[in-house]
Design a protein that fits this description.
Length: 223
């Protein structure tokens, strides 16, 4: 995220981004500068600047009448995001397996333990955050700034998809051991194995979501 010099714009940006990513503003919902200004008590200029930033980042799109629309989530977008994540995270996993330290491995295990705890407590908002932290940590430990920048561009859309699929509890339960297996491959310095586990994990996650297309399980996803 590139912040502006105006702290008010940054404040509005963070507020609206959180509401879009967490689906408090649903895909397709219209956002109007005047309404948001009145609702949150900001002047129109920082609100408009924040909305333009969110549009430039792909979370909003222009709508008629100088309005903004929350960017729709499509089945193709979901598929494309998982394809991109596989490419990025498989490369990161291979690199991390060759360079990771004992303390870094413990960080990875701690995150997965947090995921398990949040799942057991049915705290899915925190579970999604822990899941995001795990995958971001994998990219961070690779030391590749280009991969990190690419992943940062994907994360906001990925989080919206996570929130839409909250009710896929069976998939969340299945994914828990997959995260532990990724860490085990990293502990074994098995780069090829780590890549395969990441690929399997993301392939299964995408397949589980796309399998719901036929029965229309998810409100808010467009063809």
């Amino acid at each position: 995220m590139v912040e502006t010099k105006d702290p008010k714009t940054n404040e509005v940006y963070a507020l609206l981004k959180d509401k879009i990513v967490s689906l408090q503003y649903m895909p397709g919902q219209i956002l109007i500068v005047q309404h948001l200004s009145e609702k949150y008590g900001f002047s129109r200029t920082p609100v408009r600047e924040a909305l333009v930033r969110l549009r430039d980042e792909g979370l909003l799109e222009d709508a008629d009448g100088r309005k903004f629309r929350v960017k729709p989530i499509t089945w193709k977008l979901i598929s494309d995001i998982y394809d991109a994540r596989k490419a990025i995270e498989m490369l990161a996993a291979q690199t991390v397996a060759e360079t990771v330290s004992v303390s870094q491995l413990q960080e990875m295990r701690t995150i997965v333990d947090e995921m398990q705890k949040n799942y057991d407590n049915h705290n899915f908002n925190q579970y999604f955050q822990s899941d995001l932290n795990f995958h971001n940590k994998l990219i961070e430990l690779s030391g590749n700034e280009v991969l990190k920048n690419w992943m940062d561009r994907i994360n906001d859309q990925q989080q919206r998809i996570r929130y839409l699929t909250t009710n896929l509890h069976s998939r969340i339960e299945q994914s828990m051991p997959e995260h532990y297996h990724i860490v085990e491959k990293l502990e074994q310095r098995d780069g090829k194995g780590a890549m395969e586990m990441v690929s399997q994990h993301l392939t299964l996650a995408r397949a589980d979501i796309l399998s719901q297309r036929e029965n229309g399980s998810f409100f808010g996803i467009q063809d």
